[in-house]
Amino acid sequence: MIVCHCQNISDRDIHAAIDWMRAADDKTIVTPGKVYRALGKSADCGGCMPLFLSTMRTNDNVKVPMQPPVLTGIATQEETHERRQKSNRIPKRRSAK
């Protein structure tokens, strides 16, 4: 089945590229961009992305989550605002006696 008409990429091409990337490095993060590059092509209009991702999800060698993972324990911006002090005042320097 043709997934990307602009670049003439089939579902078999996508699966072959994913399998090839996993055989080369089993820890690599497989993205649509990497699949395009492995096939020597690049995305054109982007209309195929939903079908492209759905085809990637069906491959046993890649796991593409439907939803991003829920991150817990992340500090809010107010708590870690570039490690700046909450006050706008410049701290007073103690003079050496």
Secondary structure elements and pairings:
Layout: E1 2-4, E2 9-10, H1 11-24, H2 32-38, H3 49-57, H4 77-80
> Helical content, roughly?
25-40%
Rg is 23 Å
Number of strands: 2
**Discrete helix count:** 4
Terminal-residue CA separation? 81 Å
Low-pLDDT runs:
none
Features of this protein?
97 residues; mainly alpha; two-stranded antiparallel sheet; 4 helices; 5% strand; elongated
Structural account:
Helix content is 35%, strand content 5%. It is mainly α and 97 residues long. The chain has a domain at 2-57. Strands 1-2 form a two-stranded antiparallel ribbon. Strand 1 (2-4) and strand 2 form a beta hairpin. The radius of gyration is 23 Å and the shape is elongated.
In short, what is this structure?
The chain has 97 residues and is mainly alpha-helical. It is built from four helices and two strands; from the N terminus they run ββαααα.
